[in-house]
Design brief:
This protein has helices spanning 26-51, 57-65, 72-105, 120-125, 133-144. It is mainly α and 145 residues long. The longest helix is centred in the middle third of the chain and has 34 residues, at 72-105.
């Protein structure tokens, strides 16, 4: 039976940490912490600029697209887009907040589904990742079906 690079057989993938995989300490998490904080700051600044200060996205959309010459369909489409963007940005901020909480708790770098170590390459690409690649693929497959 062939073994893949992770040491698992193709028929069974066990997301079990190996003895060589240890919890990420604060020193190892520091670069990810800085990246997450930088992304959080940039995203909050972007939201504030797009919203024109402290008003909500829907209110900003109404101000931008509620002109008398605009059709109802155009206004509805623009508001729908504004709500979708707001939902995406809110989810991204929530993921960053959750990653910061995992760093504070000392569990950053561990899959929240199976407990396995999340690779450094994955965390560098997506520092807010909370699942190992296997569990993320499984979650996406489940969400599609």
């Amino acid at each position: 039976m062939p073994i893949n690079d992770a040491g698992d057989t193709p028929e069974h993938h066990a997301c079990i940490p190996t003895p060589l995989e240890t919890l990420m300490d604060q020193t190892q998490a520091a670069p990810f912490l800085q990246q997450l904080l930088r992304t959080q700051t940039e995203l909050l600044a972007q939201l504030a600029a797009q919203r024109g200060g402290t008003i909500g996205r829907a209110e900003a959309a109404a101000n931008h697209f509620g002109q008398p010459e605009d059709s109802r369909a155009q206004v509805a489409a623009e508001r729908g887009l504004e709500f979708a963007l707001d939902g995406h940005e809110t989810a991204h901020l929530s993921a960053i907040d959750a990653a910061l909480a995992r760093i504070a708790a000392g569990t950053y770098g561990d899959c929240t589904d199976c407990g396995a170590h999340i690779t450094a390459a994955r965390l560098m690409a997506h520092p807010e990742a909370h699942r190992c690649v296997h569990c993320q693929e499984k979650a996406e497959h489940t969400a599609r079906h």
